[in-house]
Amino acid sequence: MKNISLTKISIKNAQYYAYHGVRKEEQKLGGKYEVDLDMWYDAKPAFIKDDVNFALNYEEAMFLISEVVTNEQYNLIETIANEILNSVMEKFQILEKACVRVRKLSVPLRRTIDFVEVEQSVTRLKQDEV
Questions:
Q1: CA dist 64 to 1, 22, 32, 67, 126, Å?
Q2: How far apart (Å, rounded) are the C-alpha atoms in residues 95 and 123?
């Protein structure tokens, strides 16, 4: 079995105002969201060549997160997390694993809480594991 060293790139607290939620008021008035995205990949070609063309471009990852959070409307934050993961895994073939956390800061509950958060991870299967 060949071992590879994985590098993790993290995007923390990307902030958005969006119109997601089950309730009509949430969909109309919107609310604040934060997203964290951790991405693991074999960065050896990138750091040997010191070339962004061989790296996982986190600016492009930020664009994908923004597209999902601000251009679509979903009922569930679970769906937002899943769509983000699908987007980054499709875009970056060098990505081995990703973990996303989506926080909804403006939660319409009859309790005081900081936020509600969902976390979802995905790992790319190798051809010999399929």
A1: 33, 23, 18, 5, 24
A2: 9
Total number of residues shown for the chain: 130
Domain limits, the chain = 7-129
7-129 CATH pick, 3.30.365.10, 2.40.160.40, 3.40.50.10330, 3.30.1130.10: 3.30.1130.10
pLDDT category of residue 109 using cuts at 50, 70 and 90: low
Q: What is the pLDDT of residues 27-70, one digit of tens each?
A: 888 889 999 999 999 999 999 999 999 999 999 999 999 999 99
